Amino acid sequence: MIKQASPTRTRLVVVVTAVVAAGGAAMVPAIIAGVIYGEWSDTLALVAGAAIAGAIGLLGRSLARTQVGFTSREGFAAVALSWILLILFGTLPYLIAGTFERPIDALFETSAGFTTTGATVLADPGSLSHAMLLWRATTQWVGGMGIIVLSVAVLPMLGAGGVELARAEAPGPEPDRMTPRFRDTAERLWWLYVGLTLIEMVLLTIGDMSLFQAIAHSLTTMPTGGFGTEATSIGGFSAYTQWVVIAFMVIAGASFALHFRALTRPRMYLESREFIAYISILATAILIVALGSWSFGSGVESRIRDAAFTGVTMVTGTGYATVNWAAWGPGLLIALVVFMFFGGMAGSTAGAMKTYRLGILFKTIGSSIKRIIYPRLVSVQRFEGKAVEPRLVHGVVAFFVLYVGFFVVGAVLLGFFEPGFDLTTVGSAAASAIGNIGPALGDLGPTQNYAGLGIDSKILLSFLMVVGRLEIYPIVILLTHRWWRR
């Protein structure tokens, strides 16, 4: 007698296969680029990868005879499994084409892509074909706003379960609805995401980038990814180009829901305390970098530009570079590691801890100190003018503990795996991976790459990238034995 699959497993299969199919569809632009440039070998590899992913999607579609509903627990698990399988299937074009010598390098590069981490095993990205460069950039663009939100927007079969999936994948405390239906909200955010990408693309072509370079860098700036087309990252381009990238990194690190509302009411930016805090953090980071690196540069404008670029790229976790910050003084290097933990606003494509969590965390610390001084004091914490529920406070504190825990364990393990690295390299690499930044310090600075790491180190850092991108909880729940027992 054949045992019938449980409803939970069926729902998971439907969603996971739909996400894999969406990843296959994302290979189409790279296929078109391969045809245009006559790169037939890599184009066929991409076609094969898209066909395999599409076949998996059709298989899952056959199970979707009814709308898919989700509990929060199932939503978290679906997100974690979807991202893991999306990364695995995303390696297919690289593996089929033989882009990398070792499969682990293909896995590492794809993990860095979909998690919008700028880490790479390539000494010179320009050695890749146009087709593979565009696929590499596309992985970051798709991963930026979240493949789950994309699926909710374009795959109606997810139905009511989309809200639970978005709650699991979204970087904020709750999915920020701008319409009664979450699918409509997701579509609006994606159109805004597409629009901003196109605007940056046009502005970059005005400068010294070719059309292909502008497309590739726009696809990796808006998701705060950091994959470039040149070995020098953004450092080899003009001052105009660098300022354009700075502006769009700042935009990408802010809430996309806030951007959408500000289209009709620009004062929304000034009314958002989180946005003001985000801009204040950026300004502080730029000032610290400028003061600490002033003696390393030449020319006032270039020094200010390098400080602005470095401060913004570290806080937002974009991972681009215009200078070799690993050569700076120890005090400034410590500051850069601290910036790796900040991140942008909730609802942005930035990584790390996010501004709203830091705000609630500091308010919680302040309230605790006040209670010590005034034991009978009754105070209510507020965020954006609204009372913060104890549940959210507990969640933020738990997230902080887990985030630091994963960082510490990751750094310790990396130290064991790579005994030749110093403390600066090990600590910054772990912080960079979980914060989805990319370049680290020391031997893994912006002028270096991750090719020389061992297999165990690459697997560890890839895992930390996924943990950071999914903001810990989906992975923790997936690793909980109680979930599998149910």
Proportion of β residues? under 5%
**Rounded radius of gyration (Å):** 22 Å
Structural class: mainly alpha
The spatial strand order of the largest sheet comes to 1-2
Low-pLDDT sequence parts = 1-5, 154-164
The end-to-end span amounts to 22 Å
What best-fitting shape do the alpha-carbon axes yield?
globular
Total helices: the number is 23
What level of helicity do the residues show? 55-70%
Rounded mean pLDDT is 85
Layout of helices and strands, plus pairs?
Layout: H1 7-25, H2 28-36, H3 40-61, H4 72-90, H5 92-97, H6 103-114, H7 130-145, H8 147-154, H9 161-169, H10 182-206, H11 211-221, H12 239-252, H13 256-262, H14 268-271, H15 273-293, H16 300-316, H17 330-339, H18 355-373, E1 382-383, E2 386-387, H19 390-417, H20 423-434, H21 455-469, H22 473-478, H23 481-485
Antiparallel strand pairs: 1-2
Helix pairs in contact: 1-3, 1-4, 1-8, 2-3, 2-7, 4-6, 4-9, 6-7, 6-21, 7-8, 7-11, 8-9, 8-10, 10-11, 10-12, 10-13, 12-16, 15-16, 15-17, 18-19, 19-20, 19-21, 20-21
